[in-house]
Specification:
Layout lengths: L1 E7 L7 H13 L3 E7 L21 H12 L2 E7 L7 H10 L6 E3 L6 E3 L5 E7 L7 H17 L8 E5 L7 H16 L3
Parallel strand pairs: 1-2, 1-3, 3-6, 6-7
Antiparallel strand pairs: 4-5
Helix pairs in contact: 1-5
Length: 190
């Protein structure tokens, strides 16, 4: 069975991203091992106070999340885009979890990282209020940060991506079609 890490990266307890996560998890659990993390339920200091200069004790939820990163063959990150970027708490999760020695490391004399999460795949499912014609433009900096400069930097293959918007202009029918897409992704564990 495939090992999937599902991250609901919305810091709000109730959101459309939570609904998407619920649907994906329900389907994927039928044929995969799924470990789900809801950012809204994770209690941690999102500030990497010392950078990499000094050790900062990890909260239990961050240690568990790091173990799930190593365990997973596939990671699904669902998140809203706020003000053209990731929610601050999600950025904090990345800063505090994707640490040297866990997700990458350096060898003396080289600026190139040794990728410790090789052979893994990912999917980004992002929601936003931007009109449809601006979805890719609005998502581009988030995908660069989250996919290219975080996941790929640590060894993941280039992410598959689904963009859903405009949330504020969508009706129940449109949201239902997005839920159907995610249900299919979950059923196929992709």
């Amino acid at each position: 069975m495939k090992n999937i890490l599902l991250l609901n990266g919305n810091p709000k307890k109730n959101s459309f991203v939570k609904q998407l996560s619920d649907v994906y998890e329900s389907e994927a659990k039928k044929q995969a091992n799924v470990r789900r993390y809801n950012l809204s339920e994770m209690d941690f200091n999102s500030n990497l106070e010392f950078g990499y200069d000094d050790y900062q004790v990890l909260e239990d939820c961050l240690s568990e999340f790091q173990e799930a990163l190593k365990w997973a063959q596939h990671i699904v990150v669902m998140s809203p885009i706020w003000w053209g970027g990731l929610p601050g708490k999600l950025k904090g999760l990345i800063d505090r979890s994707f640490l040297p020695g866990i997700t990458f490391k350096f060898e003396s004399g080289s600026a190139e990282p040794i990728k410790l999460l090789k052979g893994k795949t990912s999917r980004m499912i992002l929601t936003m209020d931007a009109p449809t014609e601006y979805l890719e433009e609005q998502a581009k900096p988030v995908l660069e940060q989250l996919d290219r400069f975080t996941l790929q930097y640590c060894g993941f293959s280039k992410a598959e991506v689904n963009l859903f918007g405009s949330m504020i202009l969508s009706d129940k029918n449109q949201q239902g079609s997005w839920l159907k897409v995610v249900k299919e992704l979950g059923a196929n564990c992709i």
